[in-house]
Design brief:
This protein is α/β, with parallel strands linked by helices. The protein contains 12 helices and 13 strands. Strands 5-6-7-3-8-9 form a 6-stranded mixed beta sheet, with helices on both faces. β8 and β9 form a beta hairpin. α5 crosses α6.
């Protein structure tokens, strides 16, 4: 979490984009003295008010990119700007905040004391409103150490809102949250986005990216490999999945059809990955006793697997 008092002068600087990364390269040297490239010529432009999912396999360069956006590290070459400012200056201006997975909390303080203490760095911050937006009002008298992982994430969200940021970076923000807390969290984020806040989040929950992101940016080996809506990424994969309740013998015959790429049994259903779902539907309806037939587009997770190496660099 970033908690730097804002400068009124810096806050006035404007740019048509929230974030612009141009030809960004970042290299590191391992403990063995070997150099590796974590981010390799990455280009990315994020518009104001967008909710962007930033996805990639482990080692794809997501964390390194986020660190540069937050001013925690600098690129070896290329440029990173937030609202036309260098990241460190945008952070000092109070325009950027982050919710990270770990750290930043004192275990012996209560939730309310934590928010009040860090709120003192942001004159004019409405402590009660921030706690309500993050859903931690009911936890105000609980010690941080007694909060669950999901509750601590909601507290970090409250702290990130103290500066009323224009750009919010979320790294696995709903880790440890139950289903209800997760939905409430995203409802609050969408409300902030509707008021103009730009949100960029990294997550391993593909359904979050599918449901809540306006745009999905997929990185692999330090560069962008796909950029668009979740539906566009799914549509980039040919074919659909057809499932049905069908006898194993009939399923085996259907699996031999030239349009079927694979067949996976799950319980009493069989799932056929096919290039032409219409042709396969005719086969199931006309030549088998299959029931409860369903046709589904490819999932975002399938697109993720197809578009990345799943090996990464770092």
């Amino acid at each position: 979490m970033l908690h730097t008092p804002q400068s009124p002068v810096e806050k006035e600087v404007t740019s048509p984009d929230a974030a612009v990364l141009s030809k960004v390269v970042k290299r590191y040297t391992s403990a063995k003295g070997e150099e590796f490239t974590a981010v390799n010529g990455l280009d990315l432009r994020v518009g104001r008010g967008e909710v962007v999912a930033f996805l990639g396999p482990n080692g794809a360069g997501k964390t390194t990119t986020i660190d540069m956006l937050l001013g925690l590290s600098r690129p070896d070459s290329g440029t990173v700007e937030l609202f036309g400012l260098p990241p460190q200056q945008a952070v000092r201006a109070g325009r950027v905040a982050a919710v990270l997975q770990t750290g930043g909390l004192l275990p012996d303080l209560t939730v309310a004391a934590t928010v009040r203490m860090l709120g003192s760095l942001h004159p004019g911050a409405d402590i009660e409103q921030v706690m309500a937006r993050a859903g931690v009002t009911a936890l105000r008298d609980r010690r941080v150490a007694e909060c669950s992982g999901g509750e601590q994430q909601r507290l970090r969200f409250a702290l990130a809102l103290l500066s009323d940021p224009d750009f919010l970076v979320l790294d696995e923000p709903t880790a440890g949250m139950d289903v209800v807390a997760r939905r409430n969290f995203w409802a609050a984020v969408r409300e902030d986005a509707a008021r103009g806040m730009t949100v960029m989040f990294a997550t391993h929950y593909m359904e979050e990216a599918d449901q809540f992101a306006d745009r999905v940016v997929l990185v692999d080996r330090g560069n962008v490999v796909a950029d668009g809506s979740a539906s566009a990424l799914r549509a980039s994969l040919s074919g659909r999945t057809v499932s049905a309740r069908i006898a194993p013998q009939e399923a085996a015959a259907v699996a031999a059809h030239p349009q079927v790429r694979s067949c996976v049994p799950r319980g009493d259903r069989h799932y056929f990955d096919c290039a032409d779902s219409d042709a396969l539907l005719r086969v199931l309806l006309e030549r088998t006793s299959a029931t409860e037939i369903e046709v589904a587009p490819r999932s975002l997770e399938e697109a993720f697997m197809a578009l990345t190496t799943q090996e990464g660099s770092r």
